[in-house]
Each structure stands twice: as C-alpha cells, then as structure tokens.
Design brief:
The complex is a heterodimer of chains A (337) and B (341). Chain A is an alpha/beta fold. Chain A contains ten helices and twelve strands. With 341 residues, chain B is of the alpha/beta class. The chains are: A alpha/beta (337), B alpha/beta (341). At the A-B interface, helix 6, helix 7, helix 8 and helix 9 of A face helix 8, helix 9, helix 10 and helix 11 of B. Chain A: InterPro entries: AAA+_ATPase, ABC_transp_ATP-bind, ABC_transporter-like_ATP-bd, ABC_transporter-like_CS, Oligopep_ABC_C, P-loop_NTPase.
Chain lengths: 337, 341
Amino acid sequence: MTTKPLLKVDNLKKYFPVKKGMLGRTVGQVKAVDDVSFYVNEGETLGIVGESGCGKSTTGRMLMRLLEPSEGKVEFDGQELTSLSSDEMRKTRRDIQMVFQDPYASLNPRHTIGKILEEPLIVHGLDNAKERKEKVRKFLEIVGLSAYHAKRYPHQFSGGQRQRIGIARALMTNPKLIIADEPVSALDVSIQSQVLNLMQDLQKDFNLTYIFIAHDLGVVRHISDRVAVMYLGKMVEIAESEQLYVEPLHPYTQALLSAVPVPDPDYKKEQIVLEGDIPNPANPPSGCTFHTRCPFKMDICTKVVPELIQHGPGHSVACHLYGDESDNDIKKMEGSL
Amino acid sequence: MSERKTILQVKDLQTTFFTDSGEIPAVDHIDFHVKEGEILGIVGESGCGKSVTSLSIMGLIPQPPGKIVGGEIVFQENDLLKMTERQMRQIRGNDIAMIFQEPMTSLNPLFTIGNQMLEAILIHEKGWSKKKAKERAIEMLQLVGLPRAEEMLQDYPHQLSGGMRQRVMIAMALVCDPKVLIADEPTTALDVTIQAQILKLMRELNTRLNTAVLLITHDLGVVAETCERVIVMYAGQIIEESPAKQIFDDPQHPYTKGLIQSIPDMRFKKDRLYSIPGSVPKPGSIKQGCRFAARCEFAFDRCIKEDPELYETSDAHQTRCFLYDKEGAEMDDNKTLIESR
C-alpha cells in the first residue's frame, strides 16, 4: 500500500466571534476548532468522531473551504488550499466532494434527479450534453438505482435512496476525496448497512479516500482505517481504528467507548458514566478542556493544555497522563480501571 | 419475580389514519401487556407503528386523521378507550406518564421549570398548597440527579442542556408517582455520554420506585442494556416478542435476525455488514401475506398467500413467521436453512 498523504492539515483553527448589543461588538470567541492537525493517506478512510459541538463538522467544512479557516493550512494533493482564490478553489472542489447528513435537505426538491446529478458536471464544464446524460445513467446504476429514476423528483424516493443519490452526485466529477458528514445517521439500521456497504464498494472501485464524520462509534469503527476523536474543538486522540477501540488511551475516548450501548445483554463492560455536561465552547475550561469531567484529573490538567503527542506507532493522544513524568501515574490508573 | 401482576394490557389494538390517499393502518391488531415494575422495550424502524402505539395508549392520537378503530387498552381493569376525555385526563400524568424524544419541544420555552412543574403537580394533586408542591418539585429534581434543584426552578428551558432538560422531563413525568412511564425514544436526541447517564437514571428509578417502563426505541443496544422483555414491530404488527436476552441469543424472525446482524459492532470489525434488501413497505401497502415476505430470503409460497400469526416457539417467546408454525409442512427444509445462518 502506498502511504502518501493526500490531505495534510496543520494547526487548523476556526473561531466564531460572539457579538452582543446593538453595535454588534465582538465580546468573545467560540473556538469551534482549535488547533487541529492531521493527515489522510490516499485510499484510506479517516473517521472523525465526537459528540455534538466538538467541531467535527466545522472541520469537514473548512477542508472544502465552505467555511473559511481562521488560521492554519490545508494541503491537498500537493496544493495549499487556504491561499487559493475562490475561482481556483472552485476548480479544486472537483476533486473534493461532500456527502451530507440529511438527504432530505441536501437535494433540491424542484429539480429532477437527472438535473441534480448533471449539475456538478455543468459547473465544472465537463463533458457535452450527451455524455452528461450517459454519465447520469451510469452513476445511478452504480449506486444501485435505475436509469429511469433520472426523471423523478427527490420526494419520490425513500431516505436510503436519497442518500444513494447524494453519493452519486458526489461521484459525478470523479473526485479523489469524499468528505462524508454523518452520511448514515438519519437512516434506519437496515438501510444504514446498505449505504455503508455501498460506500465501501465504491471506495475499492474508484480508489476513493474518505473522511467519515460521525457520532456513532460502531459505524466509524466499521468503515475507518484510522480514527480521530474530538472534544470541544480539539483532537484528543488519533490512532489506527483497531488500536483505538482495543486500547483507548485518553480518558474521554475510554468513557465514550464505554457509553455506547452494545446489542448483547451478556456483554459485561466496565461502564464509565461521565459526570456533567459538555462545557460551553464559548467559555471552555482552562488547561485540558476535559478536566471538568475527567475521572483522573490532576493539578496540571487545570493549568496546562496537553499537546497531541505520539505514544506508540501511529497513536497520538493529548493527555497529561501520558507525559514522561507521569508514567507511574498511568500504571496506577490502569490498575484502578 | 414471575408473580408480578399485569398492569397494562393492550388487546387487538388497531389505529388507522384516514388520509386523502386512503386508509393507513399504522397499528394493525397488536396485543401485549406490561407487568408491574418491568421495563418492556418496543423496537422497530421508522414507520413501524411503535410511536403510534404509545400515543394510542395515552389517548393522544390526533383525530382526525387518526382513529382507534378497534381493540381495548386495559389499565387496572378499566378500558381506557371507553373513558371520557375528562377521565382520561386523570389517568394521564397520574397513572400513566410519558416522556418524548425532544426535551426542548416538550417544555414550554416561555415558562420557568418551576412554573411548569408546579402546574403539573397542582393539576393532579388537588388541595395541595403551593409550598408543598414546590417541595415536591425540588424533591423530584434531586431524585433525577440535578444539582442546585432549588435554583433550577427559576430557570427557563433554554438555559439547560439537552441532558438536563430530559432529566427535568423525567422528574415532571414521575411527579405524581405514575404506575407506568412511557418513554418514546428518550435518548435519541442526546449524545452517547449523556445517553448513558439518562439510561442509568431510568434503570435506577425503575428499581427504586417500581414504575413500569415502556421504552420505545430504534436502538437495539439500548434494549440490551435496559429492558427485560422486548417486542419487535414491523409494518404495524408485532413480529416477535421475547425476553430481552433471548432476542439477542436466539432471534427467530428473519427480520429480527437481519436487524441484529446489520448493526456495526463496536467490539470487533466485520468485513462486511449484513444488509436486509429493499426498504420498509409503506404502511397499508401490503394487503395479503407476511409483511416482510418481499425482503425475506426464506420466503416461500405460503408467505405471500396467508397472514402468519404469532407462533409460540418457546416459553415467553413468540414469532410471526411460518417457519415456526408447527403445523406447517414446508418448514423443515427452511428451518434448517435459517438455523444454519
């Protein structure tokens, strides 16, 4: 397997200003994404998980520059995206496509499926009318629908079928990278597995690279090669998916994994039920943002922001428990877990 | 344990919606019961009729277009369907309470938490003073694990997080000590770490107060962690009923089997997920035969021609599938087929 990063993200930040009063003065900032760095290799799937408000969707949107990053670099296929003009960026979007969560809201109800699928080709000035029609037919069949569906409107399809259409639209321009933001969370379980299987098949057939953003840890494990965990705008852990699920290091990852209900009553797990709620991102806790809910909080956690440090091959974690000095503490913690 | 009394019995319930495009039998002849103090789960995918079932019990079906066209709902020896709206209002909240999926939309944004809780208490507990009601409200908020309960009475719903709002809803539902709590997707809108808190709370309250819970969910993981018994619904019918443990150890209906297999497992990676072909039929679109036949890989002639009934397959386990009809002749080959999977 060639391991060449297709996408490299460095110190990406997005701060939203908080405005108040009639004059709209900026009184604060919401650090939606705060200093996130990662890479995605060609042909692999990187899963990004986290709870609501952790910044996973904002990250996905910034990669396509649907949202302008406040700071940081995004390098895609050797090209620095953040410095491109909007014209150049539009051309690059041919190679990066997105699949959205809500298949009801992301398809124009007044357009036929044929028109919806043709549009990316028209925007990018690809193919002539006849070739475009041909391509629409081809991709409808690839995603498991039929050519005659091109004449229909979105409301005539079920949720699962609409998500197939959303995927077909993303494939039309023959992209290299697909950013899928909660692509199956609006679907029923039996439909969800159909769409996941489809995405895996397409990845093989078209050599696609995926960034798969989701809150469902089971789904993410199933589809991802590597998984990144986010909490309050920061990446707290990133590892090979096998590694992350078997041996999670960050206390948040551990709690998150233990909180997922497993469909097996015989499975006895040690459940770590976190106290409290996710803090307000406009006023995040000092130091490590997780310290307010962390069962292993130390003095240092309230003061110093932990950095994402490598702690094994391909496994990085942002937690003071895994600093040099606290090696003994970890052993203690692991004993007590 | 097994001597618990049945507290709520649903008999042959049919709820139909009369729309411009025809009659839609959302709930189609269902029978089940809830025992004192148990947690019964109802699972199914969207449109299977699980929420309509719960709304039927509460007498909250919007009418028109909906109507309960047949059956009985017996609660403590009285048929709820024969009650007047006035009598029903006494049952709701007092004896059977309900919490919903979206705690934001079920709380009134214009009134404080205290205001809304006191209203609920004073409606049901005639003759209580405001002070007594307030004490009760604080007690309930503490019971559901909310810190600073007293101050929270002054808060408006928007000041609380999703998890806290759901706790408030639970406190409000339990304020009159109901015998049955219907929880319709109580954790679906919440994050996993918050979901874990709420499920833990519901289990604790169930043990402590002995309130029976009817938990409606689409998540089999939630069922595995909370329920004693489970009912699986598909296209308006109950297709399988069993103790919760058995549904995972020995799922019988091909739909239940498919559903369990199509969940991505967090504990180990499957190469490929099983997927049930096709999609859920529109309610009422299948007039004859098994509702699942078109998607079922074990379907044979009889499945398209006749309606299967719920067959008893073992103690407390029932399945609506001809493969389990002991009188049927065709079943043997297919049975081995289904068991080999």
